[in-house]
Amino acid sequence: MQFQGFSQEGSKFLKSLRNNNSKEWFENNRHIWQKTIQEPNISFVEDMGETLQILVPNIKFNPKVSASLFKIYRDVRFSKDKTPMKSKIGLLFWQGNGHRMQSSSFYMHYTADDYFMAAGIRNFKAPMLKTYREYLLNERNRNSLHKIIEELKGKGYFIPDSKFKRVPKIFTGDESHIYLTLFNSMFSYIEFKMNDDFYKEEFIDKAFKIYDDMKDIQEWVYEMTLTNKEQ
Question: Which of 10, 75, 152, 206 would you call most buried, defined as having the most Cβ atoms within 10 angstroms of its Cβ?
Fold first, then answer.
């Protein structure tokens, strides 16, 4: 199945879902979701995954739920949003043998209004946070990450806001680029308002250019995960 662009009808579906967020409505309209959301997602994952092998030969992708695709049903036990269905569609390509969400990845999500592209890990669980901090004890690792971040900012990309207020106890506080120790994630990202590019076959090329720009931070995070003793 060759990617032909995402579907404008899919964007309309997501707007309707946002206004009719119930399992009953979704099941009555599942055929529309399948045609306008799921089928383009599958073709994008297959084509983008193969293209990303140029950057990362062992990148992992699988156009199935709980792999490169995310569940449409929300687990309300762990979410502040208690609506049953997700109106944000996520797609993931990951590197490594750990859990996909704790692996360095290329990621994208989209709604009816915008789309978001990122590389790295978007949330560290406790073992990975510990690994990240220990990796930063090495001055070379801090310096290389700082340089990567500055280069990405120069190209118009962003990193998340820091999470913590205090420097972890394993640091003296006098280390170079100590600000890096205050994060509970490490990724770069960029957001776009929905535009015509999203609905074209050439979106693969645009996505690849963005991921190519972000390759250094993805690689840094991947090398950091390799030191995680709990994987």
Answer: 10
pLDDT by 10-residue block (mean), the chain, 231 residues? 93 95 94 97 97 97 96 80 89 96 98 98 97 98 98 98 96 96 98 97 97 98 92 62
Q: Which domain holds residue 147?
A: 124-184
Give me the number of domains the chain comprises: 2
Whether 129 and 71 share a structural domain: no
Q: Name the strand (E) or helix (H) holding 120.
A: strand 114-121
How far is Cα 9 from Cα 36, in angstroms, rounded to an integer? 6
Q: Give SS3 for 23.
A: helix
Distance CA 48, CA 67 (A): 14
Tokens of 109: 């999500």
Q: How far apart are CA 2 and CA 124, in angstroms?
A: 34
Torsion angle of alpha carbons 51, 54, 57, 59, nearest 10°? -40
- Dihedral, 116, 61, 214, 176 alpha carbons, nearest 10: 110
Shared domain check, 207 and 160: no
In terms of domains, do 64 and 93 share one? yes
pTM check: above 0.90: yes
